Amino acid sequence: MQRSMRWLSMGLVIGLAGTMAACSESKTGGTATGTDAGGEIKVGVVLDITGAGASLGVPERQTVEMLAEQVNAAGGINGRKLKLIIEDNQSTEDGAAKATSKLLNTEKVDILLGASRTGPSLAMRPLAEKAEKPMISFAANAKIVEGSKWVFKTAQNDRVVLEKMVDDMKAKSITKVAVARDASGFGEGIPEMLTEIGKSAGITISAVEKFAPDATDFTSQITNLRASAPQAVLIWGIPPAAGLAQKAAKQLGLTVPIYQSHGIGNQAFLDTAGDSANGLLAPMGRMLVADQLKADDPQKAVVTKFIADFKAKYNANPSTFAGHAYDGFMIAVEALKKAGTDANKLRDAIEATSKWPGISGVFTMTATDHSGLTKDALMIVTVDNKAWKVAG
Amino acid sequence: MSPLLKRQLPFIALLVALLVFGAAAPQQMVDVGIWALIYGFAAIGLSLLMGLAGQVSLGHAAFIAVGAYTQALLVAKANLNPLLAAPISVLASMVVALLVGLPLLRLRGHFLALATLGLGIIVGVFVTEQEFTGGTSGIFGLPNISFGGRTYDTSQEYFLLLTPVVVIGLWLASNLVHSRTGRALSAVNDSEVAAECLGVDTFALRLRVFVLSAAYAGLAGVFYTHWLTIVNPSVSHFELSVKILLMVVLGGLGTVWGALIGAVAVQLLDDGLRGLIPILIPGAKGEIQLIGFGVVLVLVIILMPGGLAQLWARFMGAVRQRKHPIVRGEHEHPVSQEEQRALLEESLTLLARAEHMPAGETILAVRGLTKRYGGVTALDNLDVDVKAGEIMALIGPNGAGKTTAFNMITGVLPPTEGSVVLEGKEVAGKRPHIAAEIGATRTFQNLQTFKSTTVIGNVKVARHLRSKAGLVRGMLLMDRAEERLIDRASQAAIDAMGLTSLADKQIADLAFGKQRQVEVARALALEPSVLLLDEPMAGLSGPERDSLSWLLRRVKASGVTVLLVEHDVAAVMALADRVAVLDDGKLISLGTPAHVTSDPKVIAAYLGEEDDQSGGPATGAPVATSGAAAGGQA
Amino acid sequence: MTDLLQLVFSGLAQGSIYGLVALGFVAIFAVREIVNLVQGEYAALAGLAAISAVGAGLPLLVAVICVIPLVVGVAVLLERLTIAPVKKMTPLTSIILTLGVSTAVKAVMLLIWGPEAKGLPTFPGTDITLGGVSIRSQELWVLGIGAIVAYAVIWFYEHTVRGKSLRACAEQPIAARLVGISPRTATVVAFAVAGFTGAVAGIVGSPIYLSSWQSGLSLGLKGFVAATLGGLTSLRVAMIGGMALGVLENLVAGYLSSGYRDAVAFVVLVLVLLFRPHGLAGKPSAVRV
Questions:
Q1: pLDDT at site B329
Q2: Which end of chain A, N or C, is more open, meaning fewer C-beta atoms within 10 Å of its C-beta?
Q3: What pLDDT was estimated at residue C33?
Q4: In angstroms, what separates the C-alpha of B612 from chain C's closest C-alpha?
Q5: Residues of chain B with pLDDT under 50
Q6: In this structure, is residue A335 part of a structural domain?
Q7: Where are the domains of chain C?
């Protein structure tokens, strides 16, 4: 049987090879790197649609789909149709790498958008750089763009978020903070950065705990934070973990102010945390409190329209993550309008974005700043009875 | 064309086919092919472990992860050339397997499977927690492999790079299956106790295959690293272990080619489902293709446990039936009576060991051998000396403790107390292969043949101790000369038992009596100095019993000591030099047949005291004439 | 000290869930010598189904009463479809088979309920604080229901004729058949019991630990470890072992590092299998490791 097994395998492979050879397409040259051949514009999007990052990826997908429709309905980009190709990275780094390879090599997209979270975005970066195609990530960690020529991002840098937070702590005379952070790329380096930024305000960290993005029990972490007698607690993660941690913190008797990151800006967080969210403090983009913005705020018009469109189409409020996707997509569209699909020109156009009002803030990119936002993009926001309110 | 050369043809064909595929197929198919090769390589190793050695590993991804992470660390942090780092990474996987296998491989079945699952999780947790492995993000931005001025970063190039490696890996694995090691492993899978009693150190063997399978997985990990260019904890996850397991099961357990076929099938299934599901179920998110995996696993196990290989075998079997209704194996040829006797003499000469202990000296000394199970004493303080070159029989009513004694003497059962000294060395409580190494082997009351192979396949296992080729030599085909010797000696043993016409038949197809005879042939092939036979007459017809008695006398004449347990009292009395009688766990009589048959204690044990109704079962009074009645209830 | 008590207490609650799952493993193994890798999925399925039921408007109690028999039915149905037809069941076969079933069930749950983790609303009650240790009302429910169900199962197997006769099946299937115990009935009952304890675990734990298509894997494995502590034959040790495992996990997470939590179960497994393969109960069982 062993011998015949081998003949089977050999036969199968030969058959496969033969079929493949017979059907093989001629190798298309495709557009040489950089040049613009006209025709359809392909935008490749890699999102965390399933897995731990789904609460980010799904609204982001909804956003880009809606915006692509709007763009095409208005005649496309300089008359050229926009083709959106969305891939699910299953919230994993290798899923992101595989999806990106597919978009670059098979679909031959003109620009890459995504991913929703830091880890997968980091996996995409080397591929975009090697292919020399511009990439705009919707995720937060500065490592994504540090030193990169081709990669940009639209979520506020952790740094500016922490800066805003430190300002608030300083105003409240808080000097001892206990930190519970997401164990993935999103949370890496946060305690260190907080120490660095908070030094001038005399802020020290009394305890650091980690939690897995899909953790459901936080007793041990919160207990340890509690034991370090902090004046405030920082929970740095995304829903559902961030919401559960918030709940656990209140339930285990923490009465000090609880700060959250800018990653909690969606309904999922409010649902999970319920009443325990009341009184928390988080630096957020303006979209969550659009109705409380002053009339002369440069972002008010953009934000209000986006909320209205999203609600009309999906019957739900957009989250901050949807906002990051909006920014990434529209910056791309603007740049494509100005420069076409030539990779180098496109990249330059993105880098030239200046004082552009988006959802996450007003963007000004430079050669050294591919994130484009300062701490002014954020406001300290709190939760009151399941609604986001500007903190007093 | 020699059979050996013929066996190489499929590999050459595979090599050519893969090269053609890699060069000509569209990129999307080649991408699928790359993952099929990478995971298939790991699956080959798992197939050896699961199919050949019969051990389930649910955590095989752990070894892929060790290989991948080690490679990533060496290349990214220590800036080592990938080609230099690769052997180190493979070695790392092997070392981990060794350390883990030493304690874990003592476990069996479910427990081993779940322990390996646990291993996978522990590796995952470890790499997630440690800073130097990059935590949940892992290590990224790794370089592609490059040497000779060429960087292997396109699909075509990488596929063509992988092809020779995978084909060679398959070739080595296939050689292993047909080698002495492969044979021993298959035997262990069929009947561990029989393999042990034939001298196979089952633990050491299993450990070696475990480490080998980890080597395959580790190298797969290296290839994974340089294709994906990022390594993170997902490479150790349970889902990947399941996928590799599915490849092995679908392709056919125990067939290394099956592993590769299964790999292609599963990758196609995975990709196909991923493409199909959004069409069938719009809005479906993500890993729904797992339904497909799960369903396939279940269906394969229920309907087609041998996997695709089984389908193929059945097909080829039917084809062969139609073309050659009478199959004659290479070892079979009809033999006449005189030829039979001549063969027998010749083979016995071949099997006779030069150095036997001088007749009359004690070759096996049993002292105070006792076995207690809780409150029950199965054997109580047995003392007996077996002299070299004699035939000693162990008889007694059912439940007397004969097989228990046998099992303890051969190492199958550890004694509660007592010692067993074989040719001057203590073997009590030690694994059976130790006794086999000294020169004692046995047959079994309840038939422990190696069901998955032929008659001669069974006998060849017994030559394990008389040959030396290990794992490596087996894989590299450096054992051909030795295999020929093994073949000849096995043939001789088969001829000695008059089974020449059955040599190439599947042993499972033979009648019970014939299988017993094979067991005896197998034991003889070991060239033992002490041959222990547990009820060898049971299931044999009258002429077959005579044959066996005659054979045993000839065997004794060549210097071998024989110890047998029997119910056929008449045959025993005619054959044995001395008889030991057990009753209720105790030795009640020891001496020549004549002495024992007239011993009142023996008579009482068999027939009961005068006032009792029938004491023991009617195993036949010492003066019974027909052996058939006595032996019928074995 | 309060921290220690805090960790211990919530560990006991988490561990009760493991214990309930472990009972299911023991129930099946005692009858068929199969390690049923689908065990954890019963819990996930029950949790998710109950959440849907409540979401559709059913009161909590009604939802629970409806879902539990449903999951029991699924457990028995899966057994009839996939395990009963296999004539020769070896450890290898049973592992691969139950693995396949659990994979398919997971994916179906993903299809129906999506990828996010969801929680059942908490059962009625208020959280309390006792001596600095905060106790969630749901944790009290978990402990209470866990104890009751465990006791009931143990009582069934040890004090009813029905239950005792079922345990005979694994040891001597032919003898059992000869005295009128149908192996088929025994198997069905065993799977029903396993489905029951799994469903209870999934429902009562859902408000705190959440249910998702993936939660069955971890629960199943940790339940198996707990069952192994009892040599796969002792119900008592399985339950208590589960609780001990929960406490140990919390202690490791609290005092060492939370990341190592998941490794605890397997380190325990390996240690037990190496040094006391017949479980911690002391009496060597028929299970040959």
A1: 57
A2: C
A3: 79
A4: 30
A5: 612-634
A6: yes
A7: 15-213
Nearest to A5 among B20, B135, B309 (CB): B309
* Interface contacts (A, B; CB < 8 Å): 134
Q: Touching C: which chains, 3+ CB pairs < 8 A?
A: A, B
Residues within 8 A of C (CB atoms), A 165-204 only? 183
Half-sphere exposure at residue A263, Cβ-oriented, CA atoms within 13 angstroms:
32
d(CA A52, nearest CA chain C) in Å: 8
Return the residue of A nearest to C127 by Cα: A251
User: Given a contact as 3+ CB pairs under 8 Å, which chains touch A?
Assistant: B, C
A101 to chain B: closest CA residue: B228
Confirm whether the ipTM is greater than 0.90: no
Residues A234 and A340 in one domain: no
Percentages helix, strand, coil for chain B, rounded to the nearest 5?
60, 10, 30
Contacts of B293 in chain C (CB under 8 A): 100, 103-104, 107
Strands B376-387 and B425-426: unpaired
| pLDDT at site B349 | 66
- pLDDT at site C272: 84
The two three-digit tokens of residue B616, written as one number: 């023991």
- C203 to A276, A363, B412, C14, C63: CA distances (angstroms): 23, 48, 49, 13, 10
Q: Is residue A168 part of a domain?
A: yes
Any chain C CB within 8 A of the CB of A150?
no
With the CA atoms of A4, A7, A11 and A14 taken in that order, what torsion angle do they form, in degrees rounded to the nearest 10?
160
In a domain, A149, yes or no: yes
Compare CB distances from B294 to C107, C111, C265 and report the shortest one's residue: C107
**pLDDT at residue C247, as a whole number:** 95
CB contact under 8 A, A50 and B20: no
pLDDT at A29: 34
Domain count, chain A: 2
Among all chains, which residue has been given the structure tokens 């005792």? Answer: C164
> Which residue of chain A has the CA closest to B264?
A13
Could you tell me if A223 and A252 are in contact, meaning their C-beta atoms sit under 8 angstroms apart? Answer: yes
Lowest mean pLDDT among A118-122, A277-281, C11-15: A118-122
**Interchain CB contact of B21 with A (< 8 Å):** yes
C254 contact A CB<8A: yes
Alpha carbons A358 and C94: distance in angstroms, whole number:
57
Query: How long, in residues, is chain C?
Result: 289
Tell me the two tokens of residue B307.
């996997």
> Do A336 and A280 share a structural domain?
no
Each residue of B124-140: pLDDT tens digit? 888 888 878 887 777 87
B76 touches chain C (CB under 8 A): no
Q: Which fold has domain B346-450+527-631?
A: Rossmann fold (3.40.50)
Residue A47 to residues A96, A115, A177, B137, B408: CA-CA distances in angstroms?
Answer: 8, 5, 33, 16, 65
Q: What is the dihedral of CA C238, C239, C244, C246, to 10 degrees?
A: 110
Q: Do A54 and C116 touch (CB under 8 A)?
A: yes
**Widest pairwise Cα distance in chain A:** 82
pLDDT in tens, A363-378: 999 999 999 999 888 9
| Domain CATH for A330 | 3.40.50.2300
How many CB atoms are located within 10 Å of the residue B79 CB? 8
pLDDT in tens, C10-54: 999 999 999 999 999 999 988 887 889 999 999 999 999 999 999
Residues of B in contact with C99 (CB under 8 A): 58, 242, 245, 294, 297
- CB contact under 8 Å between C134 and A251, yes or no, is yes
Q: Return phi, psi of residue B267, to 5°.
A: -65, -45
Q: Are residues A106 and A152 in the same domain?
A: yes
